[in-house]
Amino acid sequence: MNFTGWTNEDFDVFAVEGLEERMAALIAHTRVKLTQLGEDFAPVLAEIAGEEMFAHVAKHARRKTNPPHDSWVAWSKNKRGYKMYPHFQIGAWGTHAFVQFGIIYESPMKGVFAEQMVKHLDEIRATVPDDYMWYPDHMNPKGYRTSEMTDEEFQRIAHRLAHQKNGEVMIGIIVPRDEAVAMTPDQFAAKAKRTFETLAPLYKMAFSVEE
Predict the structure, then answer these.
(1) Which range of residues forms the domain containing residue 86?
(2) Which CATH number goes with the domain that contains 123?
(3) pLDDT tens for residues 149-182?
């Protein structure tokens, strides 16, 4: 395994003032860990998804003024990128690490997953644990636990996903930074693998029409 574990420095980078300064800190610390995780989990996710998966570490290249508040590595079945496809992620904000599956606003496959969300709501409730988080905006760390979600809220996310240009959804877990830093690399990797295995049925739902 390449991953050497989280440190406080990996999370502290998001408190560094200034775009250039924060990016320099991010590259020196957090991105190293994301690259390691990308290499470690590509074969793991290939086995879980049943197809080759490619790692894409966020570069934040579009940012010209505002420094990033989080960073991540994403895996998709496309070698060139992940934003157009359902994908898996591991990443960090200043307060926590996260492990999740999702579809962001740039994917033309949003409607497929939205339809499956509504059609298989009972199955999703049985699959996704109560403490997993649902995020209607990947740029906002505020999410909603599965246990807090009513059927109407699931349908609202699905409708937004299908009909609004900026509709998206991310689903997964958070690991508070103190807990992440205290974990050994093997402990965090095992927790991430279990999470991806739990989320795998959602990934497959997103491709159900193609299949």
Answers:
(1) 8-205
(2) 3.30.930.20
(3) 998 999 999 999 988 888 899 999 999 999 999 9
